[in-house]
């Protein structure tokens, strides 16, 4: 026979040294790779902060329009502006533009309201309609004032120019011209409708009213808000519109660009989630109509920005997912992108694009320096390694002696010492391993053995009081299944069943105490503290049921009968620890609460349910799960009644409780107050619900034979 190859310690050292060098190479690779990731993460944070700053300036600017609306509305409510007098309105609007240079126009469209149509549209009297508008002129210090009022069967308008000076004089008006009814405009109808009455409505980009007589290529672009306002008595005063110029949005972006170092390649612009440019690049692009909106012409968008606007991540941004980071390739370069959704806008998005090489340009040079330093470190490791090998060989005999004793199943404590810290750690690890092996002969829960191993402790008789969440399970009619199956088949089937149960329970941090025939006893919060153990216990019960259903539907289950598992859950204070004889211990929990949990599991037979929990579990987990108040009962061995609940499912936000559950709980409340006939009426349509059938049967019995000294508690004298 060929002898087995057994390497010497020196050979192991050489191979270890080679492995160390390879490990060092991998370490350096991951360090450099990690450095790259760190730099890129820092760049993500920078772009995140930059987009947040630009977004803050844009939204701050856009919020000036709603603030101006609120200021004017307060003036109307306090009588400083009379909404029924055009002169007073005009002065109020002029004051808004004087107070804020960013406001490009302010318009009040008014009419007497006669209520709303059945569709929610406002009804107005055309004879009372009119409009007063003040627009900032292209000439500095001038405002264009325009008034529209009814005349005959139509409307006329007149405009004039007001010059800003020490005092604002009345405008010199032009001749009167025919005009449209201003209350028919969509901005008035929408804001004054019943659905939007009193709400601030924000618009997207649109042509400035000031430039309505100019060709489109010369028109300026603005955004505006509208709101229906009321006078001091609370009557409809009209719809106020305040506009802001788009050039200020460009300024908010340009301000961040000019504040950076020269040569910084970051591109910052505003777009929408359809990939259309709104603002950026100093406003050099032409504005054209795109769908129902005004957007920068695609031909005027830089190629890098145009490619960024095609990123799919744009379409997924909204209030719930306001930030996205992505990358793309263009012209052989990789570009990094950050998109931030701007709230209180028409789904606008701040976009920042930068070449990746801008961040990683110096990393290659650092890599070369690190490579040479690593080679020198490897040589030093080899030299030092040869020097310490002799010391390691001397200490090696200690390890061999301990391993020989362990091979002979001799796990008694030893007191070995080595001057080398590594060898001392190995010897200490062997002592811990021996301690764990001593414990393995007495304990079953793996987490308990692991805990003892790490502490280097041995188990001892005794326990301590601890708050637990306890779970008992049982298989319905298991005796019938057992009689119909062969012993080997039953053992194999139960093995699959318990494996799924154990994996699911341990996945929820539960400690399986024992298997009792077809039953399982589990508890949480021992031997290790488990925060939220009530929620984990409820989730374990639900997921056990789901996992078993998948098992029954899998080919591994075959033709074996499907088990129906019932669960009982209770939170209690119990004695937890090591019980039994000194040479054979069992880590378990004892106490009245443990017995009560078993009784709760058994109650499923009576109510036709699957998971029954105590009130203590329901109180701790009701925020995460849906429960049905099932009954108030007194179980065998107890004199005081307890409230029990059925665990139904995990709670889902926005999902209403089933009507059958509400009806059952209404009937239960009447039943417990002794109103059995009324309770039956609530349960007439719920024959398919097992607890409802049980409660209805009890109601019928008590209607015929009323109970004596009824206190609403169902007494169970048997298990």
Folded structure, characterized:
Helices cover 41% and strands 27% of the residues. By secondary structure, it is an alpha+beta fold. Strands 1, 2, 3, 4, 5, 6, 7, 8, 9 and 10 form a 10-stranded antiparallel β-sheet that branches. It is flat and about 115 Å long. The two termini are 67 Å apart. The model has no long low-confidence stretch (mean pLDDT 84).
Features:
41% helix; 9-stranded mixed beta sheet; 18 helices; alpha+beta; 10-stranded antiparallel beta sheet; single chain; 719 residues; flat
Indicate the topology.
Elements: H1 9-62, H2 64-77, H3 86-99, E1 103-116, E2 122-136, E3 142-151, E4 154-163, E5 172-173, E6 177-179, H4 186-192, E7 201-202, E8 206-207, E9 221-230, E10 236-245, H5 246-258, E11 267-272, E12 277-280, E13 287-290, E14 293-296, H6 303-308, E15 323-330, E16 333-341, E17 348-355, H7 357-360, H8 363-407, H9 421-440, H10 446-455, E18 462-475, H11 478-484, H12 487-507, E19 511-516, E20 519-524, H13 533-553, E21 565-581, E22 584-590, H14 592-607, E23 611-614, H15 615-621, E24 625-634, E25 642-650, H16 659-672, H17 676-682, H18 690-704, E26 714-715
Parallel strand pairs: 21-23, 24-26
Antiparallel strand pairs: 1-2, 1-10, 2-3, 3-4, 4-5, 4-6, 7-9, 8-9, 9-10, 11-12, 11-17, 13-14, 15-16, 16-17, 18-20, 18-21, 19-20, 21-22, 23-25, 24-25
